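Customer ticket, subject: "Can you confirm the structure for ROK family protein?"

Message body: Hello, I'm evaluating your service for our small team and ran a test protein. I'd like someone to confirm that this is what the system normally returns, since I don't have a reference to compare against.
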Amino acid sequence: MFSGHFLIPIFKMKEKINDVIVGFGQKIEGIGISCPGPLDLINGIILETPNLPGWNYFHLTEALQQITGIKVQLQNDANLAGLAEAVIGAGAGKSHVQFLTISTGVGAGLCIDGKIYQGAKGFAQEVANCILWEDGPSHGALKNGSIESIASGTAITTRAQNVGLEVAHAGEVYKLEKEGNELAKQIMEDAYEYLSNFIAILYGVLDPDLFVLSGSVALKIPGFIEEIEKRAKEKVFDALKDNVKIVPAALGEDCGLIGAACLAFEG
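Agent reply: Thanks for trying us out. I re-ran your input and got the following:
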């Protein structure tokens, strides 16, 4: 059941969802939901999500199924973006596709034969808090030196602002780097180096057919993916260099929604 803390969001959600369902004018077969994590995917619960205040520990699938009478499946947003890219996007036709989004945060999803790999309890690929740098930068509630604290767009921007650079997003840090600013150069160097380290580690553990990179940092900073691939190749066994393939996502900003639809039809 749901506490009074959730009555208002549930009421508002019911109105909006019912309006959407009626607006389709046809039978809805299933509902797939893309949400940032961490999530309890086994039980359909939002555990913690900084961008949705008041929704922590919310039993989302149970609430929606009661409201709509339709089967609901909840999944991590990066997992669903990865599913879409694996099934109909840049990874179509490949059996093992590792997806990474480098944007506001760092998210990931692994798909094997067109299915999301969730792990034993549904927390597989929660990579944001993976520690790579001892006593490294901090970022929100994440541990110091985590990959998201180094390579995400938010982290790049914050680190630049903390050393006095007037920037609004990671693209401006990149621009300062290209103009010869040494502080910006070091911040971008950290992002390139630690992200390529991380991808090389993932390759050694998972041996995917390819990596698909998405997100504003990966897709909008010129040459970002090429630089990461070049460095990652140098961090694996020489005999395996040619196996490290990193490509841009093909489906754009709607890949999470497309993945949610794929999930709904799976169920």
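A couple of notes from the result: The two ends are 24 Å apart (CA to CA). The chain has ten helices and ten strands. Feel free to reply with more questions.
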